[in-house]
Amino acid sequence: MPDRQLFLLRHAKAVIGEGMEDFDRPLAVRGEQAAQAMGRYMALHGLVPDLVLCSPARRTSQTWEIAARELPATEVHLVEALYDFGDGEALLQVIREQGGSERRLLLVTHNPATQHLALALAGSGNPVQRRQMLEKYPTAGLAALTHSGTWPDLAAATCRLDAFIRPRDLA
Q1: Which of 16, 54, 72, 131 can bridge 108 by disulfide, Cβ–Cβ 3.0-4.6 Å?
Q2: Which of 54, 52, 61, 53 has the alpha carbon at shortest distance from 25?
Q3: Which CATH fold topology does 4-170 show?
């Protein structure tokens, strides 16, 4: 069975929404630029998903729409359960249930759930990047992990952290 790749993309920088529902917050200009840069990086380094599972919040959808302009067309599912700010368990459940047979899966989600899940899954890999991920998972940050099982088998420490890319690394 071929290895599977999981990409965890935190939404890009959103506007501070005074008088606006959190769900409806759009990206800030800086966020739009970071989303585009991350999409370009993903294309350049072959981090191209077969399936995208995205929180339906405006800022996550916009992050993917902008990043996706740099990548081949990919099927996208908006998943209510990904609008989550918990310990990463809800995200893990979505991957197990909706990853299907896809080899390369991308989640576009929120913190702290994204950071918790990435840290929990990364049982091995680059220790410097793991430490960076532990310190801060910035907006538009991307973790690339490799898993040798199926999506239903995904569990803590079953992945290798291949890369952790922050927007400031792309400047």
Answers
A1: 54
A2: 61
A3: Rossmann fold (3.40.50)
List the chain domain ranges.
4-170
Span 119-146, pLDDT tens digits: 999 999 999 999 999 999 999 999 999 9
C-beta separation of 109 from 145 below 8 A: no
Q: What is the pLDDT of residues 69-93, one digit of tens each?
A: 999 999 999 999 999 999 999 999 9
Strand blocks (E) in the chain: 4-10, 51-54, 75-78, 104-109, 122-125, 142-147, 159-165
d(CA 114, CA 143): 9
Q: What is the pTM of this model?
A: 0.97
With contact defined as beta carbons under 8 Å apart, do 110 and 10 qualify? yes
Contact 110, 85 (CB under 8 A): yes
Q: φ and ψ at 60, to 5 degrees?
A: -75, -45
Distance CA 127, CA 76 (A): 32
